[in-house]
Amino acid sequence: MTARSAEASAPRHTWRGSLRLRFTLVFGVMFFVATAAVLAVTALLVDSSMRYSLEVAFPDGYNLEPGQSADVQNYLIERRSAYLVIRQRIFESVQLNLIFKGGLAVVVVGALATTAGWLVAGRLVRPLSVISSTAERIAGRTLHRRIDLQAPAGEVKSLADSFDSMLDRLDEAFAGQSRFISNAAHELKTPIAVNRTLVEVAMNRADAPPEVRQLGENLLAVSARHERLIDALLTLARAENSLSELASVDLAELAESVLDSAAAEAERRGVTVEDRVEPAVVTGDPVLLEQVVRNLVDNAVRYNGPGGEVTVWVSVGRQGAEVVVGNTGPVISPHEVPVLFAPFRRLTDRVGSARGSGLGLSIVRAVARAHGGEATAQPRPGGGLTVRVLLPLAGPGPGRGTRPPGGVR
């Protein structure tokens, strides 16, 4: 199980994708639409009621009759006009007052309702946040943790229980896989060891002819290659599962140890090794991290030519601890680089024989990703390859220059 982006104690959300924010917006929009509709209906009802009430209070039913004097008719006309003006002013005043104060009430109550919706939405999505946080911690560290959500029966509780059941099955599957790998390693290595012993006994007999000795050397070489292949497969399988043995590891110390063990092979091939290592402490599996550095250095020395060069840099950059290994050698096209990281895929011009298993860089990338990092490669101008492994630091990294740079080996 590949563990990327571990160290997540709380779920990471963006405002655009926040379920709580979307719930709050929905609540707020629905409230404002509903209150606006209520205000509009209220305004229509008040309009109808006010018109009727004003007509009763200020009637305009003053009829002019032919027998009335001019003064009376003028009085009635003025009285009707005054009533119409009063009715219109009262009607407009009530309308403006209703719209202004009603709209202000809608805004104030809407803001309070939106705030309450934000709080309620937070309470509603809190169980989902617990599920997401626990899932990220499980993905980053181990399958042994469970959500075990303490909540009333419902959709969210059912989701959490289903997730726990899935984790139970996954945990059993990975445990079975680990047992299978261990048993397979034992079953595969035992007959190879027996064959090697029988071949060595046959070769060391006093009456063994030269042909038998030559055949024995070839069989021993094949057996050794099979053992390396089994070890590489086991390492790859272990890297792709969750890490169980974590410790603080200084990549500089690993590089120094690997370079010391590779010095004899580099000298035999006429390859110059130049190193520059600085303290870079990470948290991870020491055995797997050593395998990363060893594979990079061994590949750089093996796939090189007489008089070639190998550079090994270990440092702390802005993005974390870096291990950069480069070598000279055959020209590699950029489109051929992804093939190097595929299991059992090798470039013919880089191998030339069946010396390797084709799992070296696959293991490097699998281990890097299991530790939350990444491995990339880039062809070098004029031939060769530069492989860069980036790993997250264990904490505040040591300053540069605390260890004197290495030299030419």
Description of the molecule:
Helix 1 (19-57) packs antiparallel against helix 2 (70-140), helix 4 runs parallel beside helix 9 (360-370) and helix 6 (286-302) packs antiparallel against helix 9. This protein has nine helices and seven strands, in the order ααααβαββαββαααββ. 60% of the residues lie in helices and 11% in strands. The strands form two sheets. It has a five-stranded mixed β-sheet, with helices on one face. By secondary structure, the protein is an alpha+beta fold. Strand 4 and strand 5 form a beta hairpin.
Task: Please describe the structure with a list of short key phrases separated by commas or semicolons.
9 helices, 409 residues, 5-stranded mixed β-sheet, 7 strands, elongated
Give the topology, please.
Elements: H1 19-57, H2 70-140, H3 155-203, H4 210-239, E1 247-250, H5 251-269, E2 272-277, E3 281-284, H6 286-302, E4 309-317, E5 320-327, H7 337-340, H8 348-351, H9 360-370, E6 374-379, E7 385-391
Parallel strand pairs: 2-4
Antiparallel strand pairs: 1-3, 4-5, 5-7, 6-7
